[in-house]
Structures are given as C-alpha cells and as structure tokens.
Amino acid sequence: MPLEIVPFDAARYFTNEDDRAQLMTDAVKTGEAGYIAAAPGTIARARDMTKVAHDAGVTREALYRSLSQDGDPRLSTVLGVLKALGSTLSVPLVRKMRSASR
Predict the structure, then answer these.
(1) pLDDT tens per residue, the chain (102 residues)?
(2) Ramachandran region, residue 48 (left: φ > 0; alpha: ψ -120 to 50; beta: rest)
(3) pTM score > 0.85 for this model?
(4) Alpha carbons 33 and 31: distance in angstroms, whole number
(5) How many angstroms separate the CA atoms of 48 and 37, rounded?
(6) CA–CA separation, 65 vs 58, rounded Å?
C-alpha cells in the first residue's frame, strides 16, 4: 500500500484568536517580508478565506496570491485583511541600548 502524502497547511493548527495573534506578532518581529505577508494568509485560511476576502474587498484568488510566502501585497490589501480579521497593525518603538563605553 503506497504512502499517501498530503500537503501541510499551518492554518489547521491556528484554532483560536490567541494563537493567531501570536503568529502575527512573531511575523512582524522577524522583519521578514515573506513571513509578514504569509501570516495573515494563514490566519485567513484558518478563519475562512472567502469571507475574509469579501470583507477585505478583494478576490479570494488575489488574496491567495498576495498573502503567500512569495507574495508582495499592497499595504492597502494588508490593512484590509487585518481589518477583516479584527486586527490592526501596530509598530512598537525599538530602542537600541547605548553601549557602556559612551
């Protein structure tokens, strides 16, 4: 009997709002554009991509394309998706510690 391999989809594991918020926070902290673009896509798939796309005012297909690891979504798309997900984008101030020698 051949082994059946199915594609991995992280969206299956983000079942509650705390997990989803932690994913977005982690993505933003890394500063990696691909991860930041893909994280809301993962959350949207976990919640219902069709509904999120409708609420964000974009097509489902466009959302899949732009919110992928290789996607390069417009800021308006990201903001629309975050709003549809009940989230906002916040940017905390990062302060570098001064060296002791100064």
Answers:
(1) 899 998 999 999 998 999 999 999 999 889 888 898 899 999 999 999 999 999 999 999 999 999 888 888 888 888 899 899 988 877 777 777 666 555
(2) left
(3) no
(4) 6
(5) 17
(6) 11
